[in-house]
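Lab notebook page, bench 4
Experiment: in silico fold of construct C2
Operator: M.H.
Input chain length: 650 residues
Purpose: comparison with the prior construct
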Amino acid sequence: MLRDGLIRSAPPWQVMADTLLQREALVCRLGEGLLPHDFAGLYIGHDEVDGILAELPGAAGPAAAKVDALLRQLDPELAVARKQFDESLASGQSTFDRLARTARLDSRDAQALAVLLAVERSPHRMRLVAYFQDNVQLPRLTVASLSRILDARCVAPDAPLRRAEFVEIGTDGPWATRMCWPAPRLTWALAGDVSTDSALPAGTHRLDAAGIGSVDASLLLVTGADKDSRLAAVRDRWPGKPLLACPMPSSQAEWAAVVREAGVGDRAIVLDLTDPPSRDAADWIDRADHLSWVLSSPKELALDALPRRPWQEIRLDSGLASADDWAQALGTSPDPAFPLSREQLRLVTAASAGDPAQVAAGVRRLAGGHLDGLSVRIRPRRAMKDLVLPADQTAQVRELVARYRRRTVVYRDWGFSPLPSTGVVALFSGPSGTGKTLAAEIVAGELGLDLYKVDLSSVVSKYIGETEKNLERIFGAAAAGDLVLFFDEADSLFGKRSEVSDAHDRYANIEVAYLLQRLESYDGLVVMATNLQRNIDDAFLRRISVSIDFETPDEPQREQIWRQAFPPGAPVGELDYAFLAKQFRITGGIIRNAALGAGFLAADEDAPVTMERVALALKREFQKMGRLRTETEFDRYFKLVNGDGHAEPA
């Protein structure tokens, strides 16, 4: 008989399990059902069975000689055990009770789980099971034994225990002899261990609830903004629900682990999507209908890709961190210079160690990690005084700086419509060497931003879709607004769309269309440089905020560039700047290269920079470009000695 002291000390689920195991073992021993021979279990003796039964917290051992009498005697005990078991399930106080409630188990299914867990946790119970299954190689309950004790349908493929991934069943051997066992995660949970399931997808994390409450199993779509903003929307909708946030599982084992982990912790599953859900994913969500699911996606999901169960949707237009987010993260108000999303604010807070004074450095670190490899960072070192342009172009450069700097005043304070976005797109066109890159660096310097020169050879890919992914990485990383994106030779990426004659043309046009769409939604500063403006697609020209035409400098400008080309610390002799400016109609880029070349010639000979060395450096520049000049063009300042490249006065 059941002992009152043990009933009070053992949890109801364990008493229920041991009562059922006792019933099966005693019936088996007395010849009802299985009729084991004297070497049953090879060999588990009757005395040992009596000892095991006596040690079980919920059982007192056999007390009858006949089956009918035994069953009549055990029925009241079984009724008491079931009553306590059902009352415990209704209270939901213990870990076992919460597991049964989350998986929506009825009393019969919960009893099956109790028996399987009790056997899994005790070698003595395993020996008892091996005894009444007449095989020491079957220490866990088989389908046949579970059928006699309760009902084999408890572990059927679509049973609640299987949908919750709480129970596993063997796949080898006859159906009746296939063993059943609880997932290890449940056994550890009953032992008080809170470790996550080892099979979960990488990047999965648990989020506990701020309040207390429950949510009916449902499906929620959250689209738009950034990942952290979507997660915040879920927590606002379900403040009392703990969450399990994870990427899309990539295998059946990962799916099972996600469903199981959510069931153990009574958590809603938040799937962070980068692509529409597959049919397999939709089937898993439909199958695990005892759980709440969230599909979190930056883009609206197609209806035909969704699971069949009813759903609700939250659409987020903006993911910008609010004043409360800034106050909670950094204890300060939002910095208008950094339009950070909630996800970016979290990362910047970690990078700056929570110091508001280090936010700018944190934002630079945020962008740099994604842009390195696709672009080259240029830290501005030159100022407006270094830019030699006609007055009108110089004024346009200043207007570009003002347009970006004063966006908040015009759009937010004055109410101008920021269509298509608050971003600024500038086009610098003109021959090579006329100062386009220098102007972009100066603009970034005036705004206190870093300049990222996009490496188009790394961005443009021959593989379909890779170019768009690379561009998305660039614009996504730059969205914090603490940098200037500079596309040099932009006509190779922003060129006119062509007529479609083959698949290459079609995908090239798709890339151009995607880039145009991304430019229209980008809120930062983009500078595009091209040698030939007529090669730029008209659709991009309509998106241009400021267009500056860089021309070859005239004679006074060339003289000013020549004078600025030599730093104050260089040993410069008497140079005829007027002659150089008048005699050679070249761009600023060539002038700076020639000045640098003359510096190396002077350093090699430990001598000052002279006109002869400047003239020789100029000749080398012309040779490099294939523009050969006669020595007479250099007048009295140049002659070669024995063709060895050294210059001396004429």
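Observations: Residues 23 and 75 are 9 Å apart (CA to CA). The radius of gyration is 39 Å.
Next step: discuss at group meeting.
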